[in-house]
Amino acid sequence: MTRQIVSVVGGKDAASTGTYASINPARTSEIVAQVGLADAGTFADACRTAKDAQREWAKVPAPVRGRVIASIGRLVEANAESLARLVTREIGKPYAEALGEVREIVDTCDFFLGEGRRLYGQTVPSEMPDKNLFTFRNPVGVAAVITAGNFPVAVPSWYLVPALLCGNAVVWKPAEYAAASAHALYQIFVAAGLPDGVLDIVFADGAQTFEGLERALTEGTVQKIGFTGSSEVGSKIGELAGRHLQAPCLELGGKNPMVIMPDAELDLAVEGALFSGFGTAGQRCTSLGTVIVHESVHREFTERFARAVQQAEIGDPEQDVLAGPLLDQKFADRYEDYLTWIQPHHQVISGPVGRITADSPRRDFTGAGGLYYHPVVVDGVKASDRLFLEETFGPIVGVTTFASLDEAIELANLPGYGLSSSIYTTDPKHAFRFREGISAGMVSVNNSTSGAEAHLPFGGNGKSGNGSRQSGMWVLDQFTRWQSMNWDHSGRLQKAQMDVADISPDMGFRI
Fold first, then answer.
1. Does the UniProt entry include the keyword Zinc (predicted)?
2. What's the predicted TM-score (pTM) here?
3. 295 catalytic per annotation
4. Does the N terminus or the C terminus of the chain have fewer Cβ atoms within 10 A?
5. How many angstroms separate the most distant Cα atoms in the chain?
6. C-alpha closest to that of 311 among 350, 354, 262
């Protein structure tokens, strides 16, 4: 059944100026949803509506807002399987992964339920008598949240849940190719008791979204931008926000390294590399980019890794597979361009390259009707190669070698991204030296580059982001502003730094 989806502003369906067909990438003849696309004016209107609604929402006590977040979590939990199956159908993510993504929303809600009672400020001692100092967290106002579709429900929850909990209103622009999943999540949020206008959902293409965001910033109806997507688009949003003296929350791409030390447990490292590189068909911001393997174990590791990749199940995401199809035709087109980066000095050790078809099957799987591609491992990658330096969103992993840990760290940092990283070692000294030297915001030891928990900070540096963090208590700094207050009850004007209390040379106290 094809869903009909439009934007919702202030609790009412908004007009559309165009349409988009969200396609099942596992069966491209199947339309999952017909999506009505809004224009820049609708986005700007949503921000005005949200600004009005936010004033009343902010007056709701934070513990009560927390109970709404708890209701969202329970509704997601009750509808977990159907929501996960919709995610699988719309973007081709294997069902087990889609169900894990839905559970991430529940974890996020469970954590932030408690934060409704822990939006702590501080009581600070004054340098003057009869004076008290306080700090408070205030909501920022309206947050414009723009998200990608590779995690169509989990990643948005990282923004929506804390933003709403803190007393903000949100205008959410999901990816068009994951519109049905996003709309289903929106309906759950509204059903939990959110007032009209506190959360609006707007479907629009990139150009209209950018124009609408620019209008809203000029009008002063947006006080925070959250963006998950490519580094290229993130830099443009960062520039736009900077012109309006705002600091956005940017979660961007990655070229995530995995270092394999000589003392690594190789079977475990192979398992981690397989999941990191090819889970979700390599379409995570935290997907493995390059394996940096010590020269002494290079041959043994690559032989095991190549064998594991060749044996991995790629196919129908409704089944028990490592990966399904690519998310959308535009990502398939882009991935085919990445394959042209393979050079004569490279060695493909994983088998066939390109789309899975009847002429190029994966054992008995022909990929008929879907955007399925062979997973690719390229050995012999050099530090000057595009395949080493640039993000490749899809099922392709490079392999290079190193002689010392210092060299491995230098190679890991060279591309200039800084999202996720991993090291396989049994020596704690290697693990801590790697942690100290790596520029990534997240480090795994003997684990994959992918995988986040709801109470740990998530985010990157360099080309991967502007240092902002999502998840856990750290994200509260994205959706609140610190306010200080001083209360003088001395009955006279006390001037800071001028009338400060002092201690005399004979230790006698004086004012």
1. no
2. 0.94
3. no
4. N
5. 94
6. 350
